[in-house]
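S1.2 Input.
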Amino acid sequence: MPSTENNSETNRPVRWGVLGTARIATKVAAGINATPGAELTAIASRSLEKAQAWAGEHGASESYGSYQQLLEEADVDAIYIPLPPAYHAEWTLKCAERGKHVLCEKPVGMNLAEAEEMWAACKQNNVQLMDGVMWVHHPRTADMQKILDSGSLGELKRVTSAFSLHWGEGLESDIRMQRNLGLGSLGDLGWYNVRATWWAFRELPTRVFGTARYLNDADIYFSGTMWFDNSNRMASFDCGFDTAIRKWFEIAGTESSLVCDDFLKPWKEERPRFWTHGTDGESTEHISAGEDQIVCMISDFDEIVRSGQLDPQWPEQTLATRKICDAFDQSARSEKIVEL
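S1.3 Output.
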């Protein structure tokens, strides 16, 4: 079991294990392989043959036919969990007990109680918990944060955002639309909208209202409104699997606004952009450094592992997002405003 003391060795690669061969795992594996000081060490699947094939394709040195076997036998520091949300709590707790740091795909757990249990177990075992929201690690996000902090937008008043994609055939059988495994468009897409609002305002809403259309008792489309009564702010978003791809937000203040039309991932990775718009009709295009946001995320995580010091900002963001999403789910199902 790796110790915090060992993890503070700055010259040793951070060794990664992956639980599951989901499609997103292949993207994160590429990010691990591209990150200096990170090493893709082990992969586990419920099928040893599948794990071995995946290891050969993506460069993992060890493969296992069960998740538990990887935790018991692989010499790794950090675990990436791309499993369905229904399995997040179980395997995060097992990782924490084995002294493994956890990067968990969103939405984290099935509800706030599970997410809180996951963070409590990680703290108890002195390992980091972070969710797999990549865009917050990109240099463009830091550039946008500087503008928000500068006061040039005036007093921040509203965040509006959208994240949608047209799924087409096969959606009904996907785990995202199985209520006992995934959490619909709110959990898969709306998580990003909620995180963007929290990132901009850095406070929880006082009340929320959500509406949804359902398939298999999971929402295929979701629309939400947030009120921040203590600061006289509002936010709204929509997300869903039945509309053309959209991934934008606007943050509006009393003096001007900031718009990013591809905040989840730049349309052109070599030229990440956003705009500020003034009240006089003038607009300014801002260009940030073109970096791979998965590499940025892995690099940030590895830095925490090597430091030996937990960074509470990441689980705090996760728990805030989880709490708001739970309130939205309750609101849509009850058709009532929910107070936080």
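S1.4 Remarks. The CA atoms of residues 198 and 204 lie 7 Å apart.
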